[in-house]
Structures are given as structure tokens and as C-alpha cells.
Amino acid sequence: MARLLDRYKTEIVPELMKRLGRKNRMAVPRIEKITVSAGVGNARENEARLQEAMRTIGIITGQKPIVTKARVSVSGFKVRKGFPVGAKVTIRGPRMYEFLDRLINTALPRIRDFRGVSPDAFDGRGNYTLGISEQAIFPEITPDDIKQTQGFDITITIRNSSDKESLELLSLLGIPFRR
pTM of the predicted model, to two decimals? Predict the structure, then answer.
């Protein structure tokens, strides 16, 4: 079992029940899924850049990413409906907790001049999105293999929660928020 998942079940759930005044374990906020996505603006012209983004996300998450396609045409960006515009992976279950553990304990501390993540990135429904500017913070990626710096978004979808309760859960999990 993932170390963070075990800690969530044994320590964090009882603490959240006490802090939030919940009597049922199932009423406590919990992470449903983590989505890692990267947008590649010129994927139509530069197929290699899309493949590089897919390879990077696959290495970081341990799952095969899918290609995301444009939902609408935007003439200003020279994008038509159905054109490839990025890649994404949805992680669930124990692998999700392993990824979150690596993010918290290994990747985030490697960011230069890191002072914590923003506590203002909640969407109003309790979900949290974190933007990463480069993939080199993950130890799985060797700097020699990077052809172009690729940023991506990590969205943590939380069930049974408001923004305040999600902040409480993520703080107890160990995500370092800015004060």
C-alpha cells in the first residue's frame, strides 16, 4: 500500500473527523483523482513537441497519456475543432497517492526559490490546481533528455468538500501552502 494512502486512512481521516465535526468516515473529504495535463500550442505543426510532452507525462505519472483535442475552432490561434492541442493523464487509486507523495516530498522542494504553493488556486468546489513551469523538478526526468521545457497543470479533484475543507485535507497530507 502507498505510504501516503496508509497515513491518510490511519491518521488524517480521524483528525479530519474531529476538526470538521463529522461522525461518518465517508463524509470526510477525500481525493478522487489527480489529472496531469500539458497544453502544446503548436501540436499540429510540431508533432515532435506533442510526442515529447506525452513521453514526459508518461514517465512522471507511470501511465500512458491520451491526446487532448480542441473542442472548438479558434481562428486567432489557428486551431480547428479536433486538432491535437495537448496531452493528459488521470491517476486514481494507490498510484494517485504514490504520485502525490513524490510531488510533495521530492518534486516541490526541488523548485528554485520555493516558498510554498498558493492557497488561492481552489475552484469554489474544493478542487485544487497547481501549475508546474518545468518538468525537470521530477527526479524521473534527466535534464539531458529534455529537448524543450514543458510546463503542465496538476488538478487534484476532491470529493465531499468545500475550498476550506480541501485546504485542511491537503495541508494534513503535507502540501506546503504559502502563509
Answer: 0.90
